[in-house]
Amino acid sequence: MAITAAMVKELRAMSGAGMMDCKKALTETDGDMDKAVEVLREKGLAKAVKKSGRIAAEGIVALKVTDCGKKAVAVEVNSETDFVAKNEKFQNYVAQVADQAMDTTAADIEAFLAEPWKLDTSKTVNEELAGQIAVIGENLKIRRFQQVTEENGFVASYVHMGGKIGVLVDVETDVVNDDIKEMAKNIAMQVAALKPQYTNRSEISAEYIAHEEEILRAQIMNDPKESQKPEKVIEGMIKGRINKELKEISLMDQVYVKAEDGKQIVSKYIEQVAKANSAKITIKGFVRFETGEGLEKKNEDFAAEVAAQISGN
Questions:
Q1: Which parts of the chain are beta strand (E)?
Q2: Contact at 8 Å (CB) between 43 and 62?
Q3: Dist CA 255 CA 268 (whole Å)
Q4: 1-15, 59-73, 229-243, 283-297: lowest mean pLDDT where?
């Protein structure tokens, strides 16, 4: 029997299971909806979906780096409560997800969930997830993953508070020693603390800057006092404010949090370390995952906490 999209949609509505799982169940049962539901229940998927309506906004970020340091991956797996996030069974499962993500060729989370689970290829990553939900008793979600590879250097990593924030930094360098590794870790901590959006200004699009200028101009024109100033002065104000904003969102332009004078920017700190070690160093990019970022959860300022830790406060 041909399995139609409408049938898959109906089963998904009934069970709450994923599209691919529903299609497999229908294929296995030759389109019998009731039997397909039973198949999903037997695999633990139907039981899992009873919990799928609950928000999974806690959890942990796990990082895995190869022994040679040239490849790494970051994964975020969510749970409903911090209690489960601290559970050893859950943490072991997340470590297994990180192992899976290290070698995956999937381009997105949907493809990742559909691939065979390394530890038991008779089931998919999603089916293993459903099994974990049934065992642990909370809604869980593999939210995202990202690999970083650097053949001409290494990947630095930093985890804050056991996985509340995880950072990977892509370091291209012709010298790898303890000083440069320490520098890279400091940069990773910088990323965790000050949450830059870009590595350097060259990544910031002209469209973004133009949009911000429009907003700033509107703010000035809506201010009775500032709007009366000469156009040249207004343009200078806009340029100054844009420059300040770019310094905050660009990693290389941020003030280095451990700078003794409180003024040295990150790029100058890297230049200082490179010169001291006769090295050529380029920070090519970074990955920063914060657990539950953008999801509904209680407000906790982990970034400020990391900053305080780095500065010794």
A1: 60-65, 71-78, 116-117, 120-124, 141-149, 153-160, 165-173, 281-290
A2: no
A3: 9
A4: 1-15
Distance CA 8, CA 24 (A): 9
What secondary structure does DSSP assign to 245-308, as a single string?
A: HHHHHBGGGSBPTT-TTS--BHHHHHHHHHHHTT--EEEEEEEEEETTTTSS-----HHHHHHH
Q: Report yes or no: 133 and 139 within 8 Å, Cβ to Cβ.
A: yes
Three-state DSSP state, 177 = coil
- Tell me the sheet residues that pair with 168: 157, 287
Q: What pLDDT shows up at residue 19?
A: 83
Question: Residues 196, 205: contact at Cβ < 8 Å?
Answer: no
Asked whether the beta carbons of 39 and 14 are under 8 A apart, the reply is no
What digits encode the pLDDT tens for the residues 141-199? 999 999 999 999 999 999 998 999 999 999 999 999 999 999 999 999 999 999 999 99
